[in-house]
Amino acid sequence: MKGITVCFFGTTHMDTYNACIKPIFDYVKNEYGKEYEVEMAFTSRIIKKRLKDRGVMDVKNEKEALDHFKSLGIDEPIVFSTHLLEGIEYEKILSLKEFYPGLRVSKSLFADKDAINEFTKKAIFPEDECTVWMGHGTSHEVDDVYDYCDECFKKNGGENVFVATVEGRRSLETILPELEKFKDKKITLRPMMLVSGDHAKNDMAGDEPDSWKSILTQKGFKVEAVLKGLGEFDFAREMFYDRLKEVL
Hints:
It contains ten helices and eight strands. It is of the alpha/beta class. The chain folds into two domains: about 1-110 and about 230-245, Rossmann fold; about 115-230, Rossmann fold, CATH 3.40.50.1400. The radius of gyration is 19 Å and the shape is elongated. Keywords: Cobalt, Metal-binding. This is Sirohydrochlorin cobaltochelatase.
């Protein structure tokens, strides 16, 4: 018997869960369920607890999912990571190799420069006059990925595409001087995250004065926010599925 844990950071927003997380899990279940035991896991303990406390769902964390596999006699489990970066949350998964010697973990979406380059080629939307992608950002050293992502957009023809983060070093203020050149264009805000959850709805598109939409509007930009996580895009899903195939 073999097993795949489909591992997400998680979300408490069920609309984006149904749009971004469930389709990926269902794909793995339908594609590999005859050969593999398939489990879902969230690495965020806070999200997991909130969902359970509200009676929405009791989803396993990554260790609980692997413990379940061990109880079934699965000694070479696979974790399919849907994390964008190999940062703090991803390292939680890697740390489990100490307890599960046969564990295989798929690479994150942005694990190498070739993947980032491929992503940026596919994530340029001709209908956008100017795009600002909101990444999550991290205190981990892999936060530099967002700089490279921005460079790749420019290299691949997206001179009007910018990347900033809500919690990383590359903040909205970092790119404001460059955005001034597009003052006569409409800015389209998009979440560079698997789901369009709390950060997208509030920090990016919210009505509070410190949201990106409010800040840019206050500075005289025309702004539109698109609440669509990467998990809704076929090209992003396919890139994730390719990561899974690498470890099967």
